[in-house]
Structures are given as C-alpha cells and as structure tokens.
Amino acid sequence: MAKEITSKNENYSQWYNDIVIKAGLADYSAVRGCMVIKPYGYAIWEKIQRQLDAMFKATGHQNAYFPLFIPKSFFSKEASHVEGFAKECAIVTHYRLKNDPNGNGVIVDPEAELEEELIVRPTSETIIWNTYRNWIQSYRDLPILINQWANVVRWEMRTRLFLRTTEFLWQEGHTAHETMEEAVEETLKMVHVYADFAEKWMGMPVLIGTKSEGERFAGAIDTYCIEALMQDGKALQAGTSHFLGQNFAKAFDVKFATKDGNMDYVWATSWGVSTRLMGALVMAHSDDNGLVLPPKLAPIQVAFVPIYKNDDELAKVSQRIVELKAMLDAKGISTLFDNRDTVKPGFKFAECELKGYPIRIAIGPKDIEKGTAEVARRDTLTKEFVSQENLVEYVVNLLDNIQDNIYRKALEFREKNTFSVDSYEEFKKVLDEKGGFVMAHWDGTRETEDLIKEETKATIRLIPNDGKKEEGKCIVTGKPSAQRVVFARAY
RNA sequence: CGGGGUGUAGCGCAGUCCGGUUAGCGCACCUGGUUUGGGACCAGGGGGUCGCAGGUUCGAAUCCUGCCACCCCGACCA
C-alpha cells in the first residue's frame, strides 16, 4: 500500500493533507474547493453530531430545517451582515438548462432567468429571522430555541480540506429571547457547551473568550469563541456563539407584545460549529504515523488482529477473538475484527496506526497457549501483554486513560506554547520563532489591532472571558490596558 | 485575484528539452502457490482516447496556440 506520510516537521500542511487523504477521511472532488467526505471521516462527523445534538437537546433546543436558498433582498436588510458575506456568496440566477443549438452539450436557458436571484446560504440568519417574524407575536411565543444541521456555501479564495472548503457542513443555532439578559446568557451557555465538547470529547483544550471588533461576526454585538492551538503553533477557531442584540429583529421587524403591554424587538443569538472540527481533531493529536483519535470519537475503538500460520491456528485464534470481541461489544465498545487473509499482520498494524484506532489487540497461537493478548495503544505507541481474563476491564480503563492522556498532552503543548510578552519586539520575535498563543496588552482600538495584523499577520484570537485583570501598557501604542489579550497566527 | 507547480493506468512517477517500433517503472489490482508475532515472496495476468480543443508534420505524450482542472504559497474568511 505504501502510504507514506510526510513528516510533520518537514512540511506541516503536506502532513495534514496526507493524513486526511491516506487515513480515508476525505477526498478531493471534481468541484473546485469542494471535498468528498469519505465513510470513515463521515463516521467521525456522525459521532461529533450525535454528541453535540444530545447536548443541544439537553439545553432545551429543537432541530428544524430552513431553505438552502435565500432571496437576495433579505441580505440587504442588515447592513454589516451583508458587508461580511457579500464577497463570498454563490448566486442562483437561472432555473433551467437547454440543449446548445450549436450541439455543445447544454447551456443555461437565457429565457429562464429568475426575477429575484437566490443566494445559496452562507449562514441562515436572514431567512430564519424572516420566518421568526411570523412565529412571534407575544412574549408567550418566546424563547424560540432552534438548531439546524445543514450545509452552507462560502466562496473562498483558498481552500483546505475540512478547514476551509466552499461547501461545508455545520450546525447553526438560532434563538429568540424576550430580554437581553436571557440572550446573553444563552450565548454564553452555548460557547460553554462547545468548550465542554471540545475538551471532553475531542480531547482538545480550548480558550474561551470574546472576539475583538475586527474578528466579530457580521451583524453581532458580541462574538464569543473557543480557540484551540494546533501542533504547528497556529490557532484555530473551533466554535463561535454570537449575541446578536436586536439587530436582526430590527432588520426583519420582529416585535413582540411584552408582559406590560408594550411592543419590543426580540433579542437574538446564533452559534455554530462546522466540519472544521474534523480538521482541528486531526491537527490537535495526530503524528507522523497517522491519525490519533480520542476514543470517544473513534468510529472503531478496538481492532483485533489475528496472528496465525495455518488454517488450524486461524480457526483457534478467530474463535477466541470472536468471544473477546463479543464481550467488548457488550460493553458498548466499537470493535473491528480484521480477519482479512490478503494482508499480513504488519500491514494491519500500520493501517491501525494510520487510521488512529485507539487500541489494537493482536492474538496469536502463543497467546492462546498462555491466555494473553498483546494490547497496543495508539497514543503512546506502546504495547503490553494482558491476560485474556482481565482484557475487558483493562480495555475499558485503557480507553478512558487514552482519552485523558490525549487531552493532557494537548494541554501541555498549549501551556508550553503560550507566552506573555511586554514589548512589540518581543511579540514579533516570539511569533516568528515559536508561534503559539501570545498574551499581550492592547489598547482596545481597531487601529492598533489592524496595524498588528498588517505587520505581523497575527490577530487577536480572543479577549479571555476569565482573564485576570492586570494593568499594563499596549505593546504598540503604550496606552493603558486593563488585561492581556490572546494573539496568534491563525487558520 | 496575484505568484508558483502539476496534469501520462486506481495511486506515485519516468519519458517531453532534442518528435520516430507495440508508451514504461514502482505500488495497488486479478490468478496460482509458498507465507503470516511490525508494511511478505515467486510466477503469470489485466488495466492508457498521455487533462481538453485546435494546429505544424510522413509521423506528436514530446513542437506551437488556446482552454480547463487541481494542488501549494499569499491577500480574504469559520
């Protein structure tokens, strides 16, 4: 098979592409900027979806589905929103093809032009708020807590598998509230749901904070986010939650009768994570041998590899594996018995590592004799002989252990790559030599933010929500600052 | 949208500069056998409109013109 992976140190982006392609997560497609998510990759996405969906339901949300197409006029209703997305919208102008009279296949039928063009949604605030107007008359109709799983299209200049593609899958929550306090609370609640998910399920530590003006969602009053650090020292925004104030309610005229008989505009939030999380997952944990998956999101948690020299041995080994597999299955562990006779064990071992199965168990004739099994863990690449009697318990514990260890490693990496600097020179030096998160004082102005971005390519990833107040001076202007903010070069 | 690169079998490539049998190689695939505790070996076999369209020529993967696609780097963005 010869699935050589480019070394991470040699060429990080090639390493990333190699893993995505060779581990079978995704494939390039015939369409520019669009990818095919392959079954193994999609299985991971399904696990992500299942857990997040449960968390949304547990916080009182329901799923619904809104149209892919949005009338162009909706976009002009919220000024900053249009400005944010106008440059990357795909537009439907016609609804019919016809045979080319010159015989060159089909052409767009010029007769079939739409009266009003449709925008392929880059996000759904406009269509949803246009709909909510009809659903909300009184405070009794509130809150509305809806989520949708959908695809969206943003016409990007440059694409990267999972991290940035023209079409991607995501979920977007859109809620409507009676008061500002309630909407703010919802916004914060959901960013914490994301943080919880990232840390407990993906094994990926994240910072929680507020976006600066320059990084804020188009149309939001405040954007909260979770931000993770990738192994190349670049930051990756992994989820956002927006407090939209009354901006969309005003744009779409969504008013409600309050308890005291007045009319008021509805308060809104929206929040989302996308298949970009898949990219984050790859870059957070994987190594030069391939993918490393946290057990909680691994489609296959334990792979069995039989070792044998002849049919007789195979029969004995298989029988034992089937029994052990059944015991693990009964514990809710997803297992694979790799009994292909077309490849050798060594090949299977390499493949298990490439695909990131957290645990691999090899059983051969000697194990049958001794009542043991060779248990290898993907995260540390170490192996140990375990007695078959204790195997189930051992595996159950080991899966937890691996989940913890992956998180701990990532956390350690982030801590080692988070720096505090007090001068602009030091700031640039750290960025160039080490990367990572750089904590520095900032005077809070858009001008300084833009200047730093222009000169160093680093952006303010977030203003920490739990940030310790600390008097200091802006590294660029020397103006007073109340707390450090997090800078980084980002994806 | 700027810069660079690539397009030849499923994948990775050679061949292109300097046109000339039947377009090669490795991996993968198929058949048979031997193998199987870290990416097996031997033998045989199948698979190609050389990205597309024109042109030059007795003859084009190779030269010329145009187009298309994808990747990488940058600006923009989740």
Can you offer a commentary on this structure?
35% of the residues lie in helices and 29% in strands. With 491 residues, the chain is α+β, with helices and mostly antiparallel strands. It folds into three domains: 12-70 and 129-285, BirA Bifunctional Protein, domain 2; 300-397, Anticodon-binding domain (Rossmann fold); 418-488, C-terminal domain of ProRS (Translation Initiation Factor IF3). The strands form six sheets. Strands 3, 9, 10, 11, 12, 13, 16, 22, 23, 24, 25 and 26 form a twelve-stranded mixed β-sheet that branches. Strands 18-17-19-20-21 form a five-stranded mixed β-sheet, with helices on both faces. Strands 4-8-5 form a three-stranded antiparallel β-sheet. A hairpin with a 5-residue loop joins strand 20 and strand 21 (383-387). Helix 2 packs across helix 6. The protein is globular. The chain starts with 11 loop residues before the first helix and ends with a strand. The mean pLDDT is 93. It binds one RNA strand of 78 nucleotides through residues 1-4, 13-14, 17, 28, 30, 32, 84, 87-88, 123, 152, 154, 156-158, 163-164, 168, 170, 217, 225, 236-240, 272-274, 276, 305-310, 313-314, 341, 343-351, 362, 364-367, 374, 491.
